[in-house]
Amino acid sequence: MKSLRTLVFSSLAIVQLCISCGPNNEEEYYPNGKIKMKVELKDGKRHGVALKYDSIGNLQIKSHWVNGVESGKAFLFYPSGKVEQETTLKNGDSHGQVKGYAENGKLDYIATYCEGKLCGDEIKYYYGTGIKAELNRYDKTGNQFYAERYDTTGTREVAYYLPDLLGRKSPLKLGQEHTFTIEFAEPIRGKIYAVVGESDKYSNQRPRFSKIIDTLYSKDNRRFIHKFVPQKLGMNYYGAIVYHEPLKEDSIWVNGTSVKYAFEVVE
Questions:
Q1: Is the separation of the CB atoms in 86 and 95 below 8 Å?
Q2: Distance of CA 155 to CAs 131, 150, 251, Å?
Q3: What is the pTM of this model?
Q4: What is the pLDDT of residues 205-218, one digit of tens each?
Q5: Is 11 left (phi over 0), alpha (psi -120 to 50) or beta?
Q6: What share of the chain is helix, strand, coil (3-state, %, to 5)?
Q7: Nearest one of 68, 51, 56, 71 to 7, comparing CA atoms
């Protein structure tokens, strides 16, 4: 299953060298003479359709610009020409529904974004099968508070909640102890544990820890409880990866399943 990729269209925004600029378009070319990028212009600003190609002429990205800002529908393509991802951009960020497809046309993932952050439901599928693998649910700030995992037959293996994130509106206090809980909808058979870490920035992908904070073991096979004391002001980004001795060979738990959460810390 492929990872969810967002803002793939922002690569158009970093092109600075304009080899050919007419009154109505901006173009860049590969050394072999093939066109690399073409963007429509209006009053000197990018406005209209933007196209990006690979070095052999395959269309990679199609997006739209409005008065110098990437906005509206955008598409990523496989070399075969089939759609790999479609999204809606707002001020250069994914905003609204994002869909990813396997090359055979089956859904790979579908998610809702609010100004570049996951919000609402994110569903991932086993690549090329159309069989659901994951359901993740996020609040409007990008915090995940619910998740489900499925085996390769589409049968739900586990569901869990992050109750400490539900309804949280106030920032956390610097130096004050707080609790983060992962609670399963039903007890899990077999041994489970979680590795908790801190990240430098928010990520829509599997968390990449800059520092491991704790390893948690569940006494009742139902919940993990992590107590922590924020040490820095501003936004803090945490995550946990839960591991499980698999009940079956094809269990998604073999490689661990991740949860992410972020919060603001004030004095």
A1: no
A2: 9, 5, 11
A3: 0.66
A4: 666 677 777 777 77
A5: alpha
A6: 5, 55, 40
A7: 71
